[in-house]
Amino acid sequence: MKFALCLLALLNLGALRPVGGRASAPISTAALEELAYPFDVEAVSAEAQQPQVRVQRPGDNEVALVEEDLPQGRVYYNGSQLWKVLVDKRENIELLVTLREDKDISMWGGNSTTVDVLVKPNSVEKVRKIFKDNKVGFDIVIEDLQKVIDEENPAVIELDDRRGHRLTWQAYHRLTDIHGYLDYLAETYPDLCSVQTIGQSVLGKDIKVLKVSNGKPGNKAMWVDGGIHAREWISPSTVTYIINQFVTNIESEPASIQNMDWYFAPVLNPDGYEYSHTVDRLWRKNRARGVGQCSGTDLNRNFGYRWGGKGSSKNPCTETYGGSGPFSEPETASVERFIRSIQNWKAYISFHSYGQYILYPWGYDRVVPPDYKDLEAVARRAAQAIRTAGGPSYTIGPAGGTLYPASGGSDDWAKGVMKMKYAYTIELRDSGRFGFVLPANYIQPTAREALAALKVIAEAAYLA
Ligand SMILES: [Zn+2]
Q1: Which domains does the chain have, with CATH numbers?
Q2: Between the N and C ends of the chain, which has fewer C-beta atoms within 10 Å?
Q3: pLDDT band at residue 124, thresholds of 50, 70 and 90?
Q4: Does 427 qualify as catalytic in the annotation?
Q5: Could you say which of 232, 427, 449, 459 is catalytic?
Q6: Under a CB-based contact definition with an 8 Å cutoff, are residues 294 and 258 in contact?
Q7: Predicted confidence (pLDDT) per residue in 316-359, tens digit
Q8: Which SS3 state, helix, strand or coil, does residue 346 take?
Q9: What predicted TM-score, i.e. pTM, was given to this entire model?
Q10: Ligand 1 mean position to 300 CA, how many Å?
Q11: Residue 344's closest CA among 457, 224, 220?
């Protein structure tokens, strides 16, 4: 098991926030033979107490308009195939690493037994022959990625404006629809909802937060975000679904929901989100102008706790480029500034996709915080709530240990610096059938189970 994990760390998939573990055999049981608990317990590091160094943090007025950088037209994936590749031998991993270096493939995600690999159209025959010669097992999961992309998101049925907003949970919507919905809620439920713009993206788009609160003094606070990674469309849809459930049913919700100050940020990476709609469906990072031809910073490697460590790249051309310094990006800096301005935080939840995981700190290494048992217990109850709600199995575990370390993640910062006790990254559906390109008819079942998990965490936060 450990051997397999090391091999996967070699791959440094770069597609996801640390994902992994095998759904059938969570690492905590597999490694129990060796240790009472497979990860060393590590409290907040001394370095986190010191002021963070900020490099190239744009001023509020410094909005770089780099629309001219947009490539001509859209990126198409005709003939690109998604393969599920067996990684039961070390040689298989080494082959994948070579193929990636040769730009024949890219990695989407995986666990200790299989890796989801995107094969470029012109490399399909080459890779197939290499796999055959080396007896590497694989299944073709998607024959033509562009076809799946084309069918993923049905055209939004134009409804008349009686409802006052355009958002549905039958399709993935553009940023203006999502922001329009937040503004609509603030207008319609002024005693419960308010919208704040906490900052702007690299390209000057607003980053909006919806506060849902009954205004009781002494309420605890919870943060829920989505859309840190552009292509993970199910994440913003899930956050707005949860908002809708809470706002329209608040009086029938338990005290842990009603007497809580909720802060929802559905799209933390608005430039990347729009870019994934208009240009490249598989875009992950923000749209910061980079070095040479490479642009974008991985916002989930840009937070200021153990920034720049394992699983984060210094190379702007990689998917896991952590930026020029902690909070170097206006998107993450806005979150930092806003979260620091509020007291009484108890929980931080960040929705990503895919893989079906409930992950808790630490992400930066294979270590866990001193209160990991509390985090583990709540994660277990959340995963049970998902199954009770009719959902699939979600694997739970510490982020770094469940597959490989990734530093600069938002949950580590929430836990390590802001002391939010219950900090989780939830990787939503699926487990690799569609991956990032999850068809829109999965929005409601996925969001429903995420809501069930969130309620469990809210209850724990309420009692904390
Ligand atoms: Zn993600």
Answers
A1: 81-152 (3.30.70.340), 161-463 (3.40.630.10)
A2: C
A3: very high
A4: yes
A5: 427
A6: no
A7: 999 999 999 999 999 999 999 999 999 999 999 999 999 999 99
A8: strand
A9: 0.88
A10: 7
A11: 220
